[in-house]
Design goal:
About 45% of the residues lie in helices and about 15% in strands. The chain is built from 16 helices and twelve strands. The chain has a six-stranded mixed sheet with strand order 3-4-5-2-1-6, covered by helices on one side. It has a six-stranded mixed sheet with strand order 8-9-7-10-11-12, sandwiched between helices. β10 (about 295-300), α11 (about 310-315) and β11 (about 320-325) form a beta-alpha-beta unit.
Length: about 450
């Protein structure tokens, strides 16, 4: 089948690019332009016509990319027309009339590029991340992965495992041949070295995933402390409803921010208190869950009634900033039990010390992302395969100690397979759908 799709954004624009890939791409260009295919990779001005009536649709640029030297590895063409909705729909409607041409699915062009050996899975994922990047640090991370640093590391580890596997399988195939003790020791040491390298990669504080998905900040605390006002202040717009009525926020309200290039997701949560209202009780449960999964908690309390006992004390134990709001109502110095926490005194009403709070948040961000140069894992999929690889390597080392080579070899194969799954060196059809469905149509 030949696929086609709009590769530029939807809506009115100066130029729109319609991409076509497959065996019928050349025929499609001929039928639309009533001329032969233009020279490869040369922008050529052509009239684009109705296939049956030769009525002019638009005048635009045709670029022809013959396979395999194209993005997808197949014959491919790009049609650049004016970006009006009617023009785009008219061109796509004509292409749909051609036999064996259909609208592309999300990410299908990049999926073809992977299947035809033009890119590996990591590069495919980095392309999706680059398209969706909203901050500079997200863009830089996607570009680093595209350059192939992660692929090289994972492929290097996989090649080392394959070499070890070849020795183990040789022992199974030729049991009468004794493997020298030195070689057996090398197998064990090399396996242990690879396991240690994988564990080091896994010990990354999930920085890559945080950059890709966003640094999660949960605003938590009792009712009427100013949580929703703080969210609105950080966002510079009215994101959450603010009211003097306790328990106004029942659900989690989220907003995405860009703080000095760092992607941040700030969540305003329901005020935590004992309640008989079933809906509010569910909101409180959501609040506690959101706090537990957050990278940083802003625990907001009212200056005139600070109570850090019970759950409040638990919230402040790790990755938290105590935000004491309504400082204009503070009549005395803070107790030592309060000042021992990482805290800042603010007044949202008077816009006092908000800059100090923002500075604390930014410092927390920078400390979290301090190891960004060594990022190899950017998705939970990568992490899970590395964990599985490490687990099988541990079992292999245990069996290898017992000279149980037949069973040990299978664990080594599985460890190698999980590394291969990251870059797509093995049959990965079962995971392709979930990866490429995240793409926009036309990519």
């Amino acid at each position: 089948m030949t696929i086609y799709a709009l590769s530029t954004g939807s809506g009115i624009s100066g130029v729109a690019v319609i991409r076509i890939s497959g065996t019928e791409a050349g025929k499609t260009i001929k039928l639309l332009t009533k001329k032969e295919i233009p020279a490869p990779r040369v922008a050529t001005l052509r009239k684009i016509n109705n296939i049956n009536t030769s009525e002019l649709i638009d005048e635009g640029i045709i670029i022809w990319f013959p396979g395999p030297e194209s993005y997808t590895g197949e014959d491919m063409a790009e049609i650049q027309v004016h970006g009006g909705k009617a023009v785009i729909l008219a061109v796509q409607n004509e292409i749909s009339k051609i036999k064996n041409c259909r609208l592309a699915e999300p990410g299908e062009f990049t999926k073809l590029a992977f299947q035809n050996g033009k890119i590996n899975l990591l590069k495919a994922e980095s392309i999706a991340d680059l398209i969706s990047a909203e901050t500079e640090i997200q863009r830089l991370q996607a570009v680093k992965i595209m350059k192939g640093k992660s692929s090289e590391k994972f492929n290097d580890l996989r090649q080392k495992l394959l070499k070890i596997l070849s020795f183990v399988e040789a022992k199974i195939d030729f049991p009468e041949e004794d493997i020298p003790e030195e070689k057996l020791r090398n197998i064990k040491q090399d396996s242990l070295n690879i396991l240690n390298r994988i564990n080091k990669i896994l010990d990354d504080q999930k920085v890559g995933e945080i950059i890709r998905e966003g640094f999660k900040i949960a605003i938590v605390g009792p009712t009427n402390a100013g949580k929703s006002s703080l969210l609105n202040n950080l966002s510079n717009r009215e994101v959450a409803i603010v009211s003097e009525i306790a328990g106004t926020t029942r659900d989690v309200v989220e907003t995405h921010l860009n703080m000095d290039g760092y992607p941040v997701i700030v969540s305003d949560t329901a005020g935590i208190r004992d309640s008989t209202d079933e809906i509010e009780k569910k909101g409180v449960k959501l609040s506690l869950n959101k706090a537990e999964s957050a990278d940083l908690k802003l625990v907001v309390v009212d200056a005139k009634s600070i109570d850090l006992s019970g759950f409040m004390n638990d919230l402040l134990k790790n990755d938290a900033i105590l935000v004491i709001n309504k400082s204009d109502l503070l009549k005395k110095n803070l107790e030592p039990e309060i000042t021992k926490f990482n805290h800042v005194i603010i007044s949202l009403k008077d816009n006092l010390n908000i800059d100090k709070l923002v500075t604390k948040i930014k410092n927390n961000l920078k400390n979290k992302f301090i190891s960004e140069e060594d990022i190899l894992i950017t998705r939970e999929r990568h992490r899970q395969h590395l964990v599985q690889c490490a687990d099988h390597l541990k079992i292999f080392l245990e069996k290898n100690d017992k000279k149980d080579f037949d069973k040990a070899a299978e664990d080594l194969r599985l460890a190698t397979r999980h590394l291969g799954m990251i870059v797509g060196k093995v049959d990965v059809e079962e995971i392709l759908g979930s990866i490429f469905n995240d793409f926009c149509i036309g990519k």
